[in-house]
Amino acid sequence: MYVLALAVIGAIFVAVFILDSLWSVFELITSHLMPYFIPTEVLPLSKKFGPWAAITGSTDGIGKQYALELAQRGINVVLISRNPDKLKRVADEIEKLHSVKTRTIVADFSQGTEVYPHIEEQLKDIPLGILVNNVGTQYEYPMPLCELPTAKAWEIINVNVVAVTSMTRMVLPGMVARGRGAIVNVSSGSELQPLPLMAVYAATKVYVRNFTLAIREEYGSKGIHIQHLSPLFVSTKMNTFSQKLLDGNLLVPDATTYTKRAISTLGRVQTTTGYWLHGIQYFFIKIAPEWIRIKIGAQMNREFRAEHMQKVRSKVQ
Questions:
Q1: Is the pLDDT score of 152 beyond 70?
Q2: Is 201 known to be catalytic?
């Protein structure tokens, strides 16, 4: 009897594992192949979701490229970031290239909840159809928790957790009232496991994933497309601790290459890495036991830390 019970439990476990793995493959295929088989002009994003989009962290990297790509599709953009000079430059560039309207909102998300009344006031008259919660911050370099300054830990939490929560809560009522809208929450492949030497950062990305999947269940039936976007390494200033990452390669695309692929999934796929090679990586990472993922992540970050420390020593000498 006990043997039979254990056999049934084992069979169930194997079945669940296989189904979960097959679902990951299905997501990979739909994320990166479906856009090539669906005509791009069936319903333009501006018609599907609305004429305005807001992008947080929109003056550099993925955020800036999202603003440019959306503007290229005829969508007016609200740029939200902390540097007024950069905001003006990006807004001028977008208006010159794509003849759309732009607005800028200066907001330093590291300051916490105090910035949101100002943002809400600036957005109140805009029928926002798309929100890209892109703003994020990272460790300066991999380090154990006791080496991480308390102020930096709170900055990571304010930017990566409070921003996505507050911005989503802010815009959802209007989208629900209009019966349409899209929210893109940018997470990270670090959500896949606890990540030693970047413990706080990885934990915030787990929050983004769980938060996104939960509100999708709450609001998906109300016409709101809520996308979980989970890139792996992209060559941006977030990764200045590693010259290898900044230099990029086939597995580490630049922000332009990455965003061109990612935006093609908007409105079509709910969960994606945004880049097909990242999708393959994500799948194989996911099927490994968690303890192996933790060990590999720790070793990877030790190597990045050593690379950073060597660069610091070279500058001193």
A1: yes
A2: yes
